[in-house]
């Protein structure tokens, strides 16, 4: 090994250690998105005869494969650790309570009712609204019928059959369960700000926790849903809020930010509603496991996310899922900031998803990626000799085209969402 780098790009900090008479350079680089190991290799530099024993290309296939797979494997181990930490510390999640389904939607036609609480999708327990999303996507990706166990508003346990038919859940980047007519149950409450996200429009304008919104642009606001609708329909436009704070009515001008969703610009301000404790107890539940109980749960969560990521990628390849579901660095950075603003546990969960995605992506049999090298080694095992340098060079050119195309799609999607 010649270099061990944490991060990519320009080195910020370097130092050397001597092992077996050879210097190894350790680097902390500017771009903290993974890292790499530079190996001594006869295909890249001239290697002295006495050093050939250390050259990467002279090692047995099993050793080379183990070195290559170590990177993606660490991505999965890191994701398991993140999920383990989340479940150990405990995470407060929203119960899977559904509101009245949209009329004539798949959900309504399948018999779902207002305040049904989802208990299971298939054989999988549903602990949260987020679980419900992932379970519907994972189990309904190919259409068909899903058995969904619910507890009704009058505490009856029943099973409803969600008839997906030939539905394609990823034809665009819209909310999966919303496509089916589901909406989260939420009562109408007074319009009181429960909190604002740092550096979002609400915080920048001066809105604070505890502010009661009386009107927007002179129109009385009675329910939070009215505020959400006003903001969503006014991206980039000035909204004149009249709020009640400290026994005074105070005017505050807020300019909603803009997000692109399905080609339509939607406004957002980064504020959430104040919810009474009694309602929180009904809507929220804390999921928590012991030190050892959390380990298999974290492993299974990482496995499920990995399989789902792989299946979604395959759906994109065969044209059954929209390429608009691919996100680039702008989207990742944006959601990293949003999740960090919500709280540490949410941010760590986001990092776990990114780590899983990187692990799966790196194992794809695309030249230049770790999976591409593993594919070369498989060929070597079958034919009894390494692939030729000419073959590897042509394959790398193909890999560069594939990766460049993916990057262009990701940047284009980012542009459509935020620019």
Layout of helices and strands, plus pairs?
Layout: E1 3-19, E2 22-38, H1 61-89, E3 91-94, E4 97-98, H2 106-109, E5 116-121, E6 124-125, H3 129-140, E7 144-151, E8 157-165, H4 176-179, E9 193-196, H5 201-205, E10 212-216, E11 219-220, H6 224-232, E12 239-245, E13 248-254, E14 257-261, E15 264-268, E16 271-273, H7 277-283, E17 284-287, H8 294-317, H9 329-342, H10 344-363, H11 370-383, H12 389-418
Antiparallel strand pairs: 1-2, 3-17, 4-5, 5-6, 5-7, 7-8, 9-16, 10-11, 10-12, 12-13, 14-15
Helix pairs in contact: 1-8, 1-10, 1-11, 8-10, 9-10
Q: How would you portray this structure in words?
A:
The chain is α+β, with helices and mostly antiparallel strands and 419 residues long. It has four domains: 1-58, no CATH class; 59-90 and 290-419, no CATH class; 92-188 and 276-287, PDZ domain (Pdz3 Domain), CATH 2.30.42.10; 193-274, PDZ domain (Pdz3 Domain), CATH 2.30.42.10. It is built from twelve helices and 17 strands. It has helices at 61-89, 106-109, 129-140, 176-179, 201-205, 224-232, 277-283, 294-317, 329-342, 344-363, 370-383, 389-418, and strands at residues 3-19, 22-38, 91-94, 97-98, 116-121, 124-125, 144-151, 157-165, 193-196, 212-216, 219-220, 239-245, 248-254, 257-261, 264-268, 271-273, 284-287. Strands 4, 5, 6, 7 and 8 form a five-stranded antiparallel sheet that branches. The protein has a four-stranded antiparallel sheet with strand order 11-10-12-13. Strands 1-2 form a two-stranded antiparallel sheet. α1 runs antiparallel to α10 (344-363) and α8 (294-317) crosses α10 (344-363). The longest helix is centred in the C-terminal third of the chain and has 30 residues, at 389-418. The relative contact order is 0.11.
């Amino acid at each position: 090994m010649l270099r061990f780098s944490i991060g990519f790009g320009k080195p910020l900090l370097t130092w050397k250690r001597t092992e077996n008479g050879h210097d190894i350079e350790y680097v902390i680089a500017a771009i903290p998105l993974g890292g790499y190991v530079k190996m001594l290799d006869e295909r890249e530099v001239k290697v002295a005869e006495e050093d050939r024993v250390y050259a990467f290309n002279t090692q047995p296939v099993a050793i080379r494969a183990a070195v290559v797979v170590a990177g993606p494997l660490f991505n999965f181990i890191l994701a398991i650790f993140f999920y383990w930490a989340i479940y150990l510390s405990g995470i407060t999640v929203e119960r899977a309570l559904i509101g009245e389904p949209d009329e004539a939607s798949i959900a309504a036609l399948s018999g779902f009712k207002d305040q049904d609480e989802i208990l299971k999708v298939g054989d999988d327990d549903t602990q949260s609204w987020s679980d419900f999303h992932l379970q519907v996507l994972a189990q309904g990706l190919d259409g068909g019928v899903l058995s969904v166990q619910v507890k009704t508003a009058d505490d009856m346990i029943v099973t409803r059959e969600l008839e997906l038919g030939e539905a394609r859940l990823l034809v665009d980047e819209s909310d999966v369960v919303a496509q089916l007519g589901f909406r989260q149950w939420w009562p109408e409450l007074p319009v009181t700000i429960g909190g604002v996200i740092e550096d979002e429009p609400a915080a920048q304008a001066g809105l604070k926790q505890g502010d009661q919104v009386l009107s927007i642009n002179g129109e009385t606001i009675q329910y939070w849903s009215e505020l959400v609708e006003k903001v969503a329909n006014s991206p980039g436009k000035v909204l004149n809020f009249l709020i009640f704070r400290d026994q005074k009515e105070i005017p505050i001008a807020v300019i909603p930010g803009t997000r692109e969703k399905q080609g339509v610009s939607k406004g957002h301000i980064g504020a959430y509603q104040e919810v009474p404790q009694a309602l929180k107890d009904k809507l929220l539940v804390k999921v928590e496991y012991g030190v050892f109980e959390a380990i298999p749960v974290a492993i299974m969560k990482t496995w499920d996310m990995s399989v789902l990521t792989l299946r979604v990628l395959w759906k994109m390849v065969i044209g059954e899922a929209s390429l608009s579901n691919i996100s680039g660095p702008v989207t990742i950075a944006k959601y990293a900031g949003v999740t960090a603003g919500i709280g540490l546990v949410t941010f760590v969960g986001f990092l776990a998803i990114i780590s899983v995605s990187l692990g799966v992506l790196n194992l794809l049999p695309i030249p230049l990626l770790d999976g591409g090298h593993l594919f070369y080694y498989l060929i070597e095992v079958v034919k009894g000799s390494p692939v030729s340098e000419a073959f590897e060079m042509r394959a790398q050119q193909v890999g560069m085209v594939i990766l460049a195309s993916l990057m262009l799609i990701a940047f284009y999607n980012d542009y459509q969402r935020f620019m």
